Amino acid sequence: MSVSVTVTSAVGPFLPRSRRRSTTALRSSKVSIEQKRLLTKLKQECATPLPLLQHVADTMSSEMRAGLSSVDGSGLPMIPTYVHTLPTGNEKGLFYALDLGGTNFRVLRVELGGKDDRVISTHFEQVSIPHDLMIATSEELFDFIALGLAKFVAKEDGKFHFPPGRKREIGFTFSFPVKQTSIDSGILIKWTKGFAVSGTVGRDVVVCLNEAMERQRLDMRVSALVNDTVGTLAGAEYYDNDVKVAVILGTGTNACYVEQISSIPKLQGHVSSSGKMIISTEWGAFSNGLPLTVFDREMDAASINPGQQIFEKTISGMYLGEIARRVLLNMAQEDDLFGSSVSQKLSTPFILGTPDLCAMHQDDSGDLQIVGSLLYDKAGVESNLTERKAVLEVCDTIVKRGGSLAGAGIVGILQKMEEDSKGDIFGKRSVVAIDGGLYENYPQYRTYLQDSVKELLGTEKSNNVVIEHSKDGSGIGGALLAASNSMYKQD
């Protein structure tokens, strides 16, 4: 398989900064009684003992069932995706994907060769979306995206030929909340991730893209509309038929899995050729029995969606750094951590990101110099070795809780599937595909998640559950779903 890559905008968020900090003023290197008390209290409130993890898993399962039955909002959202079949491997031809999930979008071209050759080649480009287009009109945003698509196709240089009258087909991976109405249509519920584009909410995003492609005279049609979790499931299952669940653990989080149509009461009467459908759990909305601190509650109260997405706010990359910052600010105010004056920068929300936690967590130097440099650069504080060790304890506590709860959520999904299949999950190899920068780049988080799954399932069952990293699966998955839902007969 050949792969070519063009990146027009690249970001490496998990690289630690190396600028040395200034000399620390002499302060006591002993851990104060108040510091010990605050750290002990934090660890107790964030603790995830086995009974708590089991409660989270059990409740996740029961709220999944409630959401599959409910049309009035009880339980998890459990959104039908109208993806009835996953790629089989027989797909042939040239297919495209547009992956829009944040401040960049990716365009992919995938050449499929059927059972024998599978993916022959993959080419992609990444384009940064200017900030002014994130708050522009719908037409302006989608015209920019369609122009990027047109430029990408123009570079094919006549290499790929389509029969007269045949359109190029594209999978649209769109990771914003939509109410899906079919495999190739979905109404935007709201923008998130800093977007505030006018004229799109309440409209079919596929229609918006199709209209923009027509304005660019681009002969293309959207064959599948999916979110990044569904794309990850399709991309991973294409290579491994044992994949049952897909999870995104990055800035945000979600999980999806394959469900029997007969187990979705709210879709009574819906016909599926396979008897199955991928369900997007929207598990970020889960909140039952989570171990929360005053710092979580204050962060939630200050958020744009207070009282919502509590699970996401305890396990995903957007929030872990901010929770830690709030803890450190409290320790600075209550016990003069970092000295008698409190840094203004440390008082700034989200000044400390999860990538910063990750970089500090990897510091194995004797004097924790990376920790010291990051605290100085990002939070504007001088620190001695004892204070840096306290910072690492805070980071580890928050990250352990997040990874452990994510593991419990995964077990909850598997438990639900096991109960319905009567032994088809834990009795044989079952794969959970995970994508996202948090899982990929944060080793300690990854370890805590895996440990949580093993602790909950026990040795025998956990030996059959395989957790695999599926890097960039959502884009290729979008192209594969465009192929499996092609309007043209597959040979």
From TrEMBL:
Alphabetized, the UniProt keywords read: ATP-binding, Glycolysis, Kinase, Nucleotide-binding, Transferase
Q: Which Pfam families match?
A: Hexokinase_1, Hexokinase_2
Q: Taking every annotated instance into account, which residue ranges of this chain make up the domain Hexokinase N-terminal?
A: 40-238
Share an example GO biological-process annotation for this protein.
Answer: glucose metabolic process
**Enzymatic class:** transferase
- Cite the Hexokinase C-terminal domain residue spans from the record: 244-483
Assigned GO CC terms: cytosol; mitochondrion
The answer to whether UniProt assigns keyword Cell cycle to this entry is no
- Record EC number: 2.7.1.-
**PANTHER family given for it?**
HEXOKINASE, HEXOKINASE-LIKE 1 PROTEIN-RELATED
Family to which this protein belongs: Belongs to the hexokinase family.
Record-given protein name: Phosphotransferase
